[in-house]
Design brief:
Low-confidence stretches: 1-17
Distance between the termini: 45 Å
Radius of gyration: 21 Å
Oligomer: single chain
Shape: globular
CATH superfamily of the largest domain: Translation initiation factor eif-2b, domain 2
Helix content: 40-55%
Structural class: alpha/beta
Mean pLDDT: 91
Length: 381
């Protein structure tokens, strides 16, 4: 990383391990998730350039966390005393907008990042129209980014509450549920609590979770390194499985519900999530297992009619050729070609519901999602 100052964890409460983002005005530190679960190291992020690299290199990951980290990095940059800017309010707005566009390019599939950039762009444009100096524009931006951080935690907890209640109402035949999840969607992938893992936390708190199963999530192993870490930390009964063991687990009747996250949800309900999600959805449909997506409304992209329009990021070949997601020794034959998409798209017909902070989006007549109608209804309330 570009001369990033590493901040070692000192003697703090154990709970702090699960903070992917540590922020106070003028200071941002991101947990280097590439080092987990064996080492807890925070990196100092003084500006947008460092944040872009941290996002691209998977220091921070998870669509909500990426959006918050990006927004806060720019807030830190413009809040520093040595940040020299002598332009007009409109020039300040242009500066912020150009930096936001730059940050969006770090991970194009995660719509939360572009959604945050759009909202922040509107705020700085409106601020520039009335501000008397550039400082006022920067201050408006900083405050807006900080509000996003606070709202993300509240949003995740609401997702957990809605998800737990909805699932319990649909599986009244079972006293204790076993849930399978994929990738990492917990407090390490968000500002706190989590989306899909937040629902699992809520089920456990409600006393109805028998066991959580997490996939290893090849090739970057977010499940084995991060989700397992969070489940053990929270003392939730949990079992790690190989990605390829999921179908056998479902066939054995040991999974009642699959809950995953999403980096982008199209207008028809197709969702992009970590590679391997589509396989889980197909298996769940075959075995009669409920399949839910848990994601904030910021993950919904109504500009896309279907998942066919979602841009799928391809990752480095090293993640497959080498151990530890590309950081370790080579294990594959030199010269072999590699296809390493970071995400796949799960068609809406394989999804039983989309859990949001405003409720669960279900299908009209059990056939199609009316996501636009749901969003419009929540906005009018």
């Amino acid at each position: 990383m570009r001369n990033m100052k590493m901040v070692e964890k000192e003697e703090e409460e154990e709970e702090s391990c699960l903070q992917s983002i540590r922020y106070q005005r003028g200071s941002l530190h991101l947990l280097d998730q590439r080092k987990l679960p064996l080492n807890t190291i925070y990196l100092d992020i003084p500006d947008a350039a460092h944040a872009w690299e941290a996002i691209r290199e998977m220091v921070v990951r998870g669509a909500p966390a990426i959006a918050i980290a990006a927004a806060l990095s720019l807030a830190v940059q413009v809040s520093k005393p040595d940040h020299q800017f002598t332009g007009t309010p409109h020039e300040a707005a242009s500066f912020l907008i150009s930096k936001l566009d730059y940050l969006v390019s770090s991970r194009p599939t995660a719509v939360n990042l572009s959604d945050a950039a759009t909202k922040l762009t509107d705020i700085v444009i409106n601020s520039a129209a009335t501000a008397t100096d550039a400082h006022q524009v920067f201050q408006a931006y900083i405050e807006a980014a900080e509000i996003m951080l606070e709202e993300d935690v509240a949003s995740n907890k609401a997702i957990g509450t809605y998800g737990s209640s909805f699932i319990l109402n649909h599986r009244k035949d079972i006293n204790k549920l076993s849930v399978l999840t994929h990738c990492n969607t917990g407090s390490l992938a968000t500002a706190g609590y989590g989306t899909a893992l937040g629902v699992i936390r809520a089920l456990y708190a409600d006393g109805v979770l028998e066991r959580a199963y997490c996939t290893e999530t090849r090739p970057f192993n977010q499940g084995s390194r991060l989700t397992a870490f969070e489940l053990v930390h929270d003392k939730i009964p949990a079992t790690l499985i190989a990605d390829s063991a999921a179908a056998a687990l479902m066939k054995a009747g040991r999974v009642h519900v699959v809950i995953v996250g999403a980096d982008r949800v199209a207008a028809n309900g197709d969702t992009a999530n970590k590679i391997g999600t589509y396989s889980l959805a197909l298996s769940a449909k075959h075995h009669g297992v409920l399949f839910f997506v848990a994601a904030p409304l910021t993950s919904i992209d109504l500009s896309l009619s279907s998942g066919e329009e979602i841009v799928i990021e391809e990752r480095s070949a090293k993640e497959l050729l080498n151990t530890r997601g590309g950081l370790g020794e080579q294990v594959a034959a030199s010269g072999i070609s590699v296809w390493n998409p970071a995400f796949d798209v799960t068609p809406a017909n394989l999804i039983d519901g989309i859990i949001t902070e405003k409720g669960v989006i279900t299908k009209v007549g059990n056939e199609v999602f009316d996501i636009k109608g749901f969003v419009q209804k929540t906005m009018s309330n």
